[in-house]
Amino acid sequence: MKKKLMTISLSATMLSAAIMPFTACQRSEHENPLLQESTLPFGAPDFSKIQVGDYLPAFKTAIEKKRDEIGQIVADTAEPTFQNTIVAYDESGRLLERVSRTFFALIEADKTPEMGEIEKQVTPMLTDLENEIAFNRELFQRIRQVYDRDHETLQGEDLKLLEETYKEFVRKGALLSDEDMARMKEINLRISELQIQWGETLPDATNEAVVWVDKKEDLAGLSEVDLAQCQKDAESRGGKAPYAIVIVNTTQQAPLTSLDNRDLRRRVYEASIHRADGTGKYNTLPIVVEIARLRAEQARLMGYPNYASYSLEQTMAGTPDRVYAFLRQLIAEYRPKADAETRAIEAYAQQTEGPDFQLQPYDRFYYSAKMKREMLNISDEEVKPYFNVDSVLLNGVFYAANRVYGLSFRERHDVPTYHPDMRVFDVIDRDSQPLGLFYCDYFRRPSKRGGAWMDGFAKQSHQRHQRPIIFNVCNNAKAPDGQPSLLTWDEVTTLFHEFGHALHGLLSDCQYNRLSGTSVARDFVEMPSQFNESFASLPEVFDHYARHCETGEPMPADLKERMLQSINFQTAYALGENLAATCVDLAWHMLTPEEIPSAEDAQAFEHEALRQVGLLDPQIPPRYSTSYFNHVFGGGYAAGYYSYLWTEVLAVNIADVFARRGPLLPETGQDFRDQILSRGNTGDLMEMFTRFTGMDSPDASGLLKARGLEANGVNERPRTSS
User: Fold this and answer.
1) Closest listed residue to residue 344, CA positions, set 564, 562, 569, 563
2) Looking at per-residue confidence, does 719 or 150 come out higher?
3) 3-class secondary-structure state, position 696
């Protein structure tokens, strides 16, 4: 999650700006709400007081404060100890973290031009500070003294904090020569500049890629709700035509399932895949190749053959070889099923389009949906009335958390939010004690980046006496006023997915800020979210939220059976697009600086990388292609996108344990909470997994079955990739 302060990825950092108009008038530190302790519950940011003009002076003050705090650690004449050096370092920069979390949340979820200009000024300031601290030899010497002296005697969270702090400095280059250290500083600064460019270019490119439609009849196949959304999207984007189909972050686009007009399907698909690879100002490929080259140089400076080797050292997988071995096994099992799926869809299309019809990637979802309707007598439009976003949240997501973990949720209307669409809930434990706050922001808008994520305004920490303040963000269509906002099944599971991340943050029970919540390896952090999806189709939970938006009646048994059967219908595509994106990510980060292709050759490089692993399939393109792979080039998943599949294996194993013990038993939930969700990064992640499951290592054998690729019947663990 989240990048975005590297907390997760989740995700990410996001928060909506546009609270009050930008003003050049600066307030004093005493007046600036970002520099004052909030009086709201748990110190939540007070968006009723924050103005856009408060951010830059707040950053300047907070940066200087952290600089002073680091200076005090270095200037301490007492012998370095765990408390005066390691804990002091963990506690430094609390003000800066508070300002940063608020600001970058807005950058992700509701970015205004004014906020974008502030980001351009702030990012190099933050990078300079990070370099200054990372390469402060006096500070590192104190940390090293404590590490050398106390590493064998400290225990528990104290030992883990010491290890993580020491490794952080070493991995950033604290042991480099002066010359190499200077170059590393330059690289860090340049990458931060490039990621600002990426963060500006890709959202603009995606917004610009909108497909304008003049005639309603060209949108035949879309529901009335979708037509209304197309009108609303057109109005919000300047009204160049009566209707607009907006492009979301992934390669495939939801309207391709329903649009009867083949040429319009083609236009939408091409707008998606070419959104950021053209020759104009929206071409991200020059940014990509420079970032990749700089990362490769970073790895070389640190003594690694490539960036993937450097990055993966801190993960459960450990090495590129282990990741590729994992992927090769999946690809070998997946490939025949994908080919059979493609042949079946094309043969079905030829029944109506003629024997010469050749299936194109923009046709696949359309004819697959027709096949599903014919074979299972079901469609998204038939089931969506039972997936009202409010019911899914309150009667599904929250209900499962109540049954399994004993949590209850009380909506608050006295906590200001950054956007009117946002909701805030108190999270209350089974002993009636408050756990923290949960915000949700589920509807798309032009100022929000694509995708779905989790992050927080504050992490849990006993050291800081801080409760977690967590948020989820999605990009669902919002119905017109007075009408219910309805979800697809994929969007339903996404709500459960992101709340799995939220639970990882909300149920944290750790001493130190650095170790709490989702601060774990990338190939572990997605496990709680992937696992939480399993509750979406659990019969008791499903029946509790899947109720008609007008009548409140539960989904009829026959429709429910057909809907759950449909989860497994032609699922090879979803696995294939994820495998392809994973291999694209790894291919870029297995290169030396000299091997990085030019921007002009970047797409050819992607195609060759996919061909080499047997995944160059025009019918199943990567979920994210190079030019719009935000996880990798805009976020914290470089050489780490494989973690979605890796953690899916972990999640399948966890779900099997729940199924055996009783999926809604509080005792099982408490054990999972005690062994994993509350622990953050306070221990060995594999040992946590083993203690809960009783397994010495993850078992990947059930993954294809969980994906519906090995057996017929209801999939009890549907998956949604981010």
Assistant:
1) 569
2) 150
3) coil
- Rounded to an integer, what distance in angstroms lies between the CA atom of residue 480 and that of residue 483? 6
pLDDT of residue 279: 73
Q: Which residues have C-beta within 8 Å of that of residue 383, sequence separation ≥ 6? A: 489, 555, 559, 563
**What value does the mean pLDDT take over residues 59-67?**
98
Q: Is residue 565 within 8 Å of 714, Cβ to Cβ? A: yes
Q: Is residue 590 part of a domain?
A: no
Please tell me whether residue 439 adopts helix, strand or coil conformation: strand
In whole angstroms, how far apart are CA 244 and each of 208, 272, 504? 11, 14, 38
Phi, psi at residue 597, to the nearest 5°? -75, 170
Query: What is the Cα 291 distance to its own chain's centre?
Result: 20
Average pLDDT on 47-64 reads 97
pLDDT of residue 324: 95
110 plus 233 within the same structural domain? no
For all residues of the chain together, what is the average pLDDT? 92
Q: What is the DSSP letter of 198?
A: H
238 vs 84, residue with greater confidence: 84
Do 194 and 229 sit in the same domain of this protein?
no
Catalytic residue status for 594: no
| Residue range(s) defining the domain that contains residue 30 | 4-201
Nearest of 216, 237, 199 to residue 118 by alpha carbon: 199
Tell whether 365 is covered by a domain: no
Q: Output the six-digit token pair for 214.
A: 């003049």
* Number of domain units in the chain: 3
Pair (497, 434) in one structural domain: yes
Q: How many CA within 13 A on the CB side of residue 82?
A: 18
pLDDT tens column, 206-259: 999 999 999 999 999 998 889 999 999 999 999 999 999 999 889 999 999 999
Q: If 0-12 CB within 10 Å is exposed, 13-18 middle and 19+ buried, where does residue 178 land?
A: exposed
- Which of 519, 548, 566 is at the close of a domain? 566
Which one, of 119, 228, 191, 101, lies nearest residue 482 by Cα? 228
| Shared-domain flag, residues 136 and 219 | no
Q: What is the per-residue pLDDT across 109-128, written as a single tens digit (0 to 9) for each?
A: 999 999 999 999 999 999 99
Q: Please give the pLDDT value at position 710.
A: 66
Per-residue pLDDT, 26: 64
C-alpha 123/C-alpha 101 separation (Å) is: 13
Among residues 498, 533, 577, 716, which one is catalytic?
Answer: 498
pLDDT attached to residue 381: 86
One-letter amino acid for residue 414 of the chain: D
Distances (CA, A) of 209 to 268, 271, 273, 544: 9, 6, 10, 39
Domain co-membership, 267 together with 158: no
